[in-house]
Amino acid sequence: MTHSKRKLVAVFQRHGATNKAQAGQHDLTRTLSEEGRKQAALIGSKIGYKIDLIISSAAGRAVETACITARAAGQLPDGVQHFAEDVLYPHEHTYPILDAAFKKIGYAPLASYLLDPNVVKETAAYAIRAMGRIWEIINEADSGLEDEKQPFVVLITSHAVCANILARNMQLGTDATLEDLVLVGSTSMDAGSAIVIELEDDKSSAKYITP
Questions:
Q1: Is the pLDDT of residue 163 over 90?
Q2: CB of 44 within 8 A of CB of 73?
Q3: Contacts of 132 (CB under 8 A, 6+ apart)
Q4: How many CA within 13 A on the CB side of residue 203?
Q5: What share of residues in the chain are helix, strand, coil (percent, to 5)?
Q6: Nearest residue to 16 (alpha-carbon basis) of 40, 41, 34
Q7: Half-sphere CA count of 104, side-chain side, radius 13 A
Q8: Which of 79, 85, 145, 201 is 20 to 30 A from residue 118's alpha carbon, by CA?
Q9: pLDDT of residue 101
């Protein structure tokens, strides 16, 4: 699925630094630390666009990051359509192999995930499913807008390796292989950082920004 009405700017952001989970706390409910809130605000000030649409992981830290970033970019979250999507969170029961690999490998280079073909297969399944939902939301949200001279700006907030993979997937399109998804030094993104993908006609560009 593609977006062809006008220039699309997609900001794929990793959530900011978080507080440590308390005993018995579910991962989805973890919140940003003070450092994480500062990171989100700094990224918002560097994007250079106001946000038209927010799509975030359902994890609380991702939703919080997205709202702070959008506000810092000059757009109050209350004035933006906001979708907290379960599909952007790599649940351990949906992607057990990827979850186990991430817990073992942690924030190693993204290329480390390519060593196990089962991890490759499950990571690709995550990317296809998540990007399908992202395109669905983008095209529906933009369908009623008439001003095609202004870019349509989407903030997509998820998690470390996930944000990197999704950004590369959007840039390369549906023919991308997992090996193609290694972007910007083959590393997991720093907390709060973002990859800005700009798509217009048949051209694309990617820019990595840090807090």
A1: no
A2: yes
A3: 1
A4: 4
A5: 45, 20, 35
A6: 40
A7: 10
A8: 85
A9: 81
**Full-model pTM:** 0.88
Q: Express each pLDDT in 21-76 by its tens digit.
A: 787 777 788 889 999 999 999 999 999 999 999 999 999 999 999 999 999 998 88
In angstroms, the CA 73 to CA 95 distance is 33
Token couple for 161 = 């390796």
Side chain identity, residue 6: R
Whole-number Å distance between alpha carbons of 65 and 35: 11
Q: Is 204 buried (19+), middle (13-18) or exposed (0-12) by CB count in 10 A?
A: middle
Q: Which amino acid is at 70?
A: A
pLDDT band at 5 (very low <50, low <70, confident <90, very high): low
Kindly give the pairing relationship between strand 152-158 and strand 81-85: unpaired
User: Which letter does DSSP use for residue 115 in this model?
Assistant: G
Who's near 185: CB < 8 A, 6+ residues apart? Answer: 109
